[in-house]
Amino acid sequence: MTAVLLRLAGVSSLLIAAQVGSVLAQEARAGRPAGAEYEGEAFEFRKVAEGVYLAVGTGAVSAESNAVIVVNDRDVLIVDALPSPAAAWAMLRELEGVTPKPVRAVVLTHFHYDHAHGTQSFPSGIDVISAEATRRMLAEGRSLSHPTAAGNRTFSAAQVTNLTQALDTASTPASRRNIDARRAVWRRYLESIATITPVVPNVAVSGRLTLTRGGRDIVIIHPGSAHTAGDLVVWLPKERILITGDLLQPNLPYMGDGFFPHWAEAIDSLQALNPAIVLPGHGDAITDMAVVERQRDYLRDLYSQTARLKQEGHPLEEVAKLLDLSKYDPYYPRPPGWTDEIVARRRLGTVKRIFDLLDGK
């Protein structure tokens, strides 16, 4: 792929406010952000290789996605910015116990809220790197209005309501304390995401960009439209570590913005790098490449079956019921209590996405 690096002009500040004049956001930038109160450690830094760590939330703050820390000779590059200013602030604060080196760059693998909405807590003046499609989503405020972010706000508020109701039926002081602690995490998360001011990336990558930091090459790749239109992955060739965001996961990723079958082709191109370790946006590190092949095969089966059934004239709801992906059940088991009807209903969004792509929408 041809290397294209765009340093975007006209961005005098990395902070482009979607909620201009928000007092809470100003307070967050000045110090500890709203919702960042917690006890204990918010992150576990799992060492993957020398200078490479997978940052995984402990539950002390709401941080459903991973970040990857790459400690170089003089600075630090981080892949993904977590779902909220509070989560990012906690991670950066605790990172000081791992390395005193300054953070100079953050790579956003895609625009979804859980990977891009913590960026405002990062130091000002750093490189915020993304694909062009991701940059546009953040610049236009569409990452905030996107169904993933809107659904997350609704879900989070529902957790507070449900846990408040659960307090009424808690039978012991210990259970009440547990419920109240969980409710506090959700409440603080809602406080934090209310202050989000999306940061517009100031570096856009199309194709491939290689950064050299001491003895380490960091290769940032846009593999084409896959999980979203604006995916980036990060490849560390010396360590053979591939950092993928949600393009690859141990479990099935969200597919509502996916590009079938290009996603499967992107996985093929990344497999050709021969990675030893894949660090995903959710879940544990992947060392068994059969996991990667399985996701690619699932995506291809899902797309080809949907396309065939649509061509045969079956409507969307019927296609969701007729899909036969049972051979993947041992690897992607349905949650307890899920019936075939529930599975079909949960597939509707993905099937609709494929219908839209087939119709050229």
Q: What's the short version?
A:
The protein has 361 residues and is of the alpha/beta class. The chain is built from 11 helices and 12 strands.
Helix and strand topology:
Elements lengths: L2 E5 L15 H8 L12 E7 L2 E6 L9 E5 L4 E4 L5 H11 L7 E5 L5 H4 L10 E4 L1 H8 L2 H4 L1 H23 L3 H21 L9 E11 L2 E6 L11 E4 L4 E5 L16 H10 L5 E4 L9 H22 L4 H7 L17 H19 L3
Parallel strand pairs: 5-6, 6-7, 7-8, 11-12
Antiparallel strand pairs: 1-8, 2-3, 3-4, 4-5, 8-9, 9-10, 10-11
The tally of structural domains comes to: 3
Head-to-tail CA distance between termini: 27 Å
Mean pLDDT: 92
Sheet/helix structural class: alpha/beta
The share of residues in helices is 25-40%
Instruction: Tell me what portion of residues adopts beta-strand conformation.
Output: 15-25%
Number of extended strands: 12
Largest sheet: 12 strands, mixed
One letter per element, helices H and strands E, the order comes to EHEEEEHEHEHHHHEEEEHEHHH
CATH topology of the largest domain: Metallo-beta-lactamase, Chain A
**Assigned CATH architecture of the largest domain:** 4-Layer Sandwich
Q: Give the full name of the CATH homologous superfamily of the largest domain.
A: Ribonuclease Z/Hydroxyacylglutathione hydrolase-like
- The CATH first-level class of the largest domain comes to Alpha Beta
Silhouette: globular
